[in-house]
Amino acid sequence: MMNTPELVPTRTRRPRPQVVSLTDAAAERVRDVMAKSEKPYLRVGIKNGGCAGMEYVMAYADAPDPLDEVVEDKGVKILVASNAILFLVGSVVDVENTKLHSKFVFKNPNETDACGCGESVTIVPAAAEA
């Protein structure tokens, strides 16, 4: 007997967890930054560099790349670069404000080490089961 598509049961997929989330302060800062931007998107990613091996990067983008993860949280939309997804799973983006600077910071459960100056980190990719 041959299976026809209408006889094959479909599985309901569980919702995928959001790759990153934003604190209220980070969402507000993204709104402020994007209101002044000439480009419609903000992309979060990672790059090799620094004494600990990797650095977080944020850049304006004209459009999502085909493999970017689009994250909507607290009324804002950001893109997560495809090469960063496994490194950022479970991360929370926050904002740190002092008298001398204001910057985005990442609370990343995948970080295993950081350099002394705080500019670079060591990150292991999330396990497939996560």
Helix content: 10-25%
Task: Please report which band the strand proportion falls in: under 5%, 5-15%, 15-25%, 25-35%, 35-45% or over 45%.
Answer: 35-45%
Mean pLDDT: 87
Give start-end ranges of low-pLDDT stretches: none
Pairing-aware structural class of the strands and helices? mainly beta
Shape: globular
Instruction: Give the strand line-up of the largest sheet.
Output: 3-2-5-4
Number of strands: 9
Span between N and C termini?
39 Å
Largest sheet: 4 strands, mixed
Number of helices: 2
Query: What's the Cα radius of gyration?
Result: 18 Å
Descriptive keywords:
3-stranded mixed sheet; mainly beta; 130 residues; globular; 4-stranded mixed sheet; 2 helices
Structural overview:
By secondary structure, this protein is mostly beta strands. Helices cover 12% and strands 38% of the residues. The chain has two helices and nine strands, in the order E-H-E-E-E-E-H-E-E-E-E. The protein has helices spanning 24-35, 85-88, and strands at 20-22, 41-48, 54-61, 69-73, 76-80, 91-97, 102-107, 111-114, 121-123. The strands form three sheets. Strands 3-2-5-4 form a four-stranded mixed beta sheet. A three-stranded mixed beta sheet has the order 1-6-7. The mean pLDDT is 87.
